Amino acid sequence: MEILKGAVAAAKIKEEIDHEMGRLNGYTPRLAIVRVGEKPDDISYERNAIKKMEKLGLLADSYTFPADISDGEFKEQFQKINQDENIDGILLLRPLPKQIREKDIERMIDPGKDLDGISPENIAKVFAGEEDGFAPCTAEAVIEILKAGNISLEGKRMTIVGRSMVVGRPLAMLALKENATVTICHTRTKDLEGTCRNAQILAAAAGKARMLNGSFVGDGAVVIDVGINVDEDGNLCGDVDFASIQDKAAAATPVPGGVGGVTTSVLAKHLVRAALARK
Ligand code: NDP
């Protein structure tokens, strides 16, 4: 089984970024990472994003707010970031605490700075198959990994486990745009195992540690594992039981070392695109 390392796609994206940076005449794009509270997952994502921006010669600032900030106060602060001329793109770490109406923020964010595709305008573009919006970075990272591995989606049966607005649904739309025949699975899906086994490309985004084992994978399938979970021993693992698919899959992404790092590369690519559009 071939291991689809995220580093290969990340290197390809870096080349694209380097090329695009040349068009910015020395200007360095600036990212604002907005975090409310101190959730370890958010802090870890923020740290990885900052590291990636630094590595690519991009600027990133963190804007952090207390977990108990009021809806009104957060909106006021968020609008300042949104309207700051020195900021080219925004990454909002979600979910936000309950007292903040997240839907309002999705409608408020400037679609031109909305690097993770949460605004209605960007979502509509992804669903319409238009290319000038921003898709959620993780969903796009899956497509980038397949492309970097020279795996065509054209006419392939692709099954996605998960229907969230962050991964499953936008990924289905991006795959459809690449002419895959897409099936989306969720907790009410009957015969999940058979539906997954029938796929030529299987993308797992359920958030359940190692739930998809070898019997969910068809012979010669390509498996992309989006899941980031912590198992009972405290180890990081994906949604796929990597050891049990070795003899069935043709290729698969590892966790860690797969989709995660490519997500921040896509974020960087979006930042440069946002900066170019604002110049
Ligand atoms: P959500 O919890 O929002 O969605 C999970 C989806 O999986 C839901 O649609 C749910 O179905 C479905 N699901 C859950 N359990 C099962 C099951 N037993 N059988 C079938 N379907 C199931 O998660 P996210 O989409 O936000 O994230 C998914 C995973 O991806 C997580 O592990 C997360 O950590 C990871 N992730 C990784 C990123 C990266 O950069 N690599 C970024 C974002 C997320 P239903 O709708 O019916 O409830």
From TrEMBL:
EC numbers listed for it are 1.5.1.5, 3.5.4.9
Q: Does the keyword Hydrolase apply?
A: yes
Report residues binding NADP(+).
162-164, 228
**Protein's GO biological process:** L-histidine biosynthetic process; methionine biosynthetic process; purine nucleotide biosynthetic process; tetrahydrofolate interconversion
| Domain (Tetrahydrofolate dehydrogenase/cyclohydrolase NAD(P)-binding): residue spans on this chain | 136-276
Q: Which domain of life is it from?
A: Bacteria
Q: Which UniProt keywords apply?
A: Amino-acid biosynthesis, Histidine biosynthesis, Hydrolase, Methionine biosynthesis, Multifunctional enzyme, NADP, One-carbon metabolism, Oxidoreductase, Purine biosynthesis
Which is a Gene Ontology cellular component entry for this protein?
Answer: cytosol
Q: Name one GO molecular function term.
A: methylenetetrahydrofolate dehydrogenase (NADP+) activity
Q: In which pathway does it act?
A: One-carbon metabolism; tetrahydrofolate interconversion
**Signal peptide span:** none
Catalytic activity field? (6R)-5,10-methenyltetrahydrofolate + H2O = (6R)-10-formyltetrahydrofolate + H(+); (6R)-5,10-methylene-5,6,7,8-tetrahydrofolate + NADP(+) = (6R)-5,10-methenyltetrahydrofolate + NADPH
Q: Specify the Tetrahydrofolate dehydrogenase/cyclohydrolase catalytic domain's residue ranges.
A: 4-116
Q: What does the subunit comment say?
A: Homodimer.
**HAMAP family reported for this sequence:** THF_DHG_CYH
Concerning its family, UniProt says: Belongs to the tetrahydrofolate dehydrogenase/cyclohydrolase family.
- Which purpose does this protein serve, as stated in its record? Catalyzes the oxidation of 5,10-methylenetetrahydrofolate to 5,10-methenyltetrahydrofolate and then the hydrolysis of 5,10-methenyltetrahydrofolate to 10-formyltetrahydrofolate.
Record-given protein name: Bifunctional protein FolD
Q: Which organism encodes this protein?
A: Candidatus Lachnoclostridium stercoravium
> What is the organism lineage in this UniProt record?
Bacteria, Bacillati, Bacillota, Clostridia, Lachnospirales
